[in-house]
Amino acid sequence: xxxxxxxxxxxxxxxxxxxxxxxxxxxxxxxxxxxxxxxxxxxxxxxxxxxxxxxxxxxxxxxxxxxxxxxxxxxxxxxxxxxxxxxxxxxxxxxxxxxxxxxxxxxxxxxxxxxxxxxxxxxxxxxxxxxxxxxxxxxxxxxxxxxxxxxxxxxxxxxxxxxxxxxxxxxxxxxxxxxxxxxxxxxxxxxxxxxxxxxxxxxxxxxxxxxxxxxxxxxxxxxxxxxxxxxxxxxxxxxxxxxxxxxxxxxxxxxxxxxxxxxxxxxxxxxxxxxxxxxxxxxxxxx
Length: 287
Known about the structure:
mainly alpha, two-stranded antiparallel sheet, 5 strands
């Protein structure tokens, strides 16, 4: 309603927007931010015999494609089998000069892509050829992707494996894909593959997973070094003793360490021996 009055005000149909001073209530969307484990999606894939549905679930969960516009825009010409890359048409940003992005065909996706390729008919253009054959695609081909409804079949698959539906079915799969990729690759790489920005990814996509807590507890800490070696602080390092108590041990003293190389000598071509053997400091006066 507020947008309607803003447009009416812009067209000078009304003199004032009665909703201008109203503020939207803050909504806590944390309960709608769900991480869907890959194990659940693999069970969904096993529960359907349809090859295109298997590929659709895999390509959304592991590569984070937007449903339905991006998967249904894919053609076989977008597949680079040799380099294992996929050119994803990007209808959302096509008007901004970014018609596509290139993503890797990760191992969990490739077998399903190959299976659909082997089953494809000669001359078939679109990868999801059969799923596109519906009346709603007539509108979708004109850019009205909201008319393509894949939700009901996904709900039936979820019920088939005995799981409860999660909020925002397809978006949560995409967000889970970005979360997993973000744990493996730098954020600028992940956002380039996902087609969003780091700000959007941090606010709307990245999730804290149970595996994050497990890794924090069980994995070895490297103390901030590249090699993984622990760096002692203040000359001491905490070492677990056989009695399960933490004790401090002193750092090992330096030995056989000379400040200068013993065999160093003066180069007469470059240096002039102006300093006496007394060194830098003047001799101490005797009183």
